[in-house]
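The protein record now logged underneath.
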Amino acid sequence: MSDIVIVAPATSLKTGGTMNLTVEGIISSLYAPIELDVSKVTFSVTPGEATGTTVDAKTGKVTAGTTVKATYNGLEDSVQITIVK
């Protein structure tokens, strides 16, 4: 696998809302991305941006807005999730 990408259903989230992230593995341009088992991906929020934000480390469930990072076998990707009122 050469890269991973976080798949977010949206890039904004209402205050108090939740969303589930998935992660796809990229093998090469010749193959379609494959959805990874999120229990094998580690999710985290960027330090210093975590005010009021949580992300379940094993399921990717986001409950606020910030930069969320996914790590899988040494590969990383991040996505910015913004809070809207």
Observations:
- The beta strands are 3-7, 12-14, 19-20, 22-26, 34-35, 42-45, 61-62, 67-72, 75-80, 82-84.
